[in-house]
Specification:
The chain starts with a strand and ends with a strand. It is mostly beta strands. Helices cover 0% and strands 50% of the residues. The relative contact order is 0.23. The chain has no helices and 25 strands.
Length: 302
Amino acid sequence: MASFSLASTIETSISDMPISIGATRTEVRYGPFHVESQTMYPHTPYITTQKPCIDCYLVAMQTELEYINGTVANFDSGIWLHHLMQFNTNQADPVCAQNSGNLFYGPGNERPIWELNSDAPFGYYVAQDDVWVNGVEIMNDSNDAKDVQVTVTYDWVPASTLVGQTYKNADLIWVNIGATCGDGEVPPQNGVTTFKSDVWESTVTGPILTARAHMHDGGMNATLYINGKVACLSEQSYAPRDGFTDAQGVSHLSGASGCADVGMLQKGDQLYMEAVYDSSKALQHNGKLDNFVAVMFVYVGV
């Protein structure tokens, strides 16, 4: 594999990022979600949901958890985004064909910016007849019920324009600790532990556009291997950041570095990940360590 470069660990707001030539920026609000105190809003049932555009390429995305009045909801007020998973039921998933659709976007509470066109004109194509569904999990650790919404900002390029005609499709592939096609969730262990995924054999060929790990508290770093060689090291950050320090003064996972210039992925390549976990930084509920989650997301031009 080619050498890789790292993006910033501390996430910024997509609103501070210039809009790509020929692109439009659209906010879509999903919800509202009513979450009782000390409970998790469930991942299922999936919710058929709104697309920001049709016959277009998604070129950048960022997700926020917000209260209904538009203010940010996070650890400092006792509620956080476990994850959002967006599926396109009109497309098969390149990793898990048995899924009900193509998982094309899966942000967590670290709220990263995913930019697919930073080096070349690639984006996730959205067709007119595509049907999207959302899987949402939201954890309310506070003593009060809360009403929140998930707000996704999409930058997109119309496929029919002169700029859009230069674009090619991108797709999301992913490997997770635990069993292939699982949710990346495993029981915790005390101390420092390295968890490893199963090996996944690539079904696609194309340039790797960007890669980054999604982990929960306790995650320290994750490494993507392709054919036994390091392709991406995604470092997790607990650096202070607005909203990520709870009422007890604990700083939670607030960012993750990403990789670019990773090289070409070939059909038949062998991919797996290793995730380093430290229980001293893990979340606890009812006096017990939470299960640990680690997934490596990789966008590939196809």
